[in-house]
Design a protein that fits this description.
Number of strands: 2
Radius of gyration: 21 Å
Order of helices and strands: HEEHHHHHHH
Helix content: 40-55%
Shape: elongated
Distance between the termini: 43 Å
Number of helices: 8
Length: 146
């Protein structure tokens, strides 16, 4: 919530509020349509940076786990997390963890070889020949890529 926003009174539910500057409330915001309604949410990289900003409130292990999962699932890039951390003045805190975990995000140098390796893996697990997997249409029922 903003620095001067009114804080709600919790009705029996324990909540912990954090306040952001106006600049931090507007940076890293994405707009999504949810059931026909436009909703503004913070992006993954901004959320990770905020976890490190409030690591004393939520725990450092939560921030590190969020960083690990975001990188493992390729939800964001190390560069984008570093940019958001820099904007949020937590770059010096995030940098060591980002450097330690970045090797788990390997850059694909030869996309053709990567796709071929994935198709070979699919053909082995499905018991079909590589040629059949290569020509199968994923939208057809029963194809291995569906």
């Amino acid at each position: 919530m903003g620095q001067k926003d009114w804080s709600p009174e919790p009705g029996g539910t324990p909540i912990r509020l954090v306040r952001f500057t106006d600049r931090l409330l507007t940076e890293g915001v994405e707009t999504h349509a949810v059931e026909g309604v436009t909703v503004k949410v913070f992006g993954v990289a901004k959320t990770i940076a905020d976890c490190f900003r409030y690591r004393n409130k939520i725990g450092l292990s939560v921030a590190i786990e969020g960083l690990q999962e975001a990188l493992r699932q390729r939800k964001t890039t190390p560069g984008e997390i570093a940019r958001q951390a820099e904007r949020g003045t937590v770059a010096t805190v995030v940098r060591p963890y980002l450097e330690a975990l970045s090797p788990m995000v390997k850059e694909i140098k030869n996309i053709g070889a990567s796709v071929r390796a994935r198709l070979l893996q699919v053909s082995k697990t499905s018991g079909q020949t590589f040629d059949l997997v290569l020509t199968a249409k994923p939208w057809e029922a029963g194809s291995p890529a569906a």
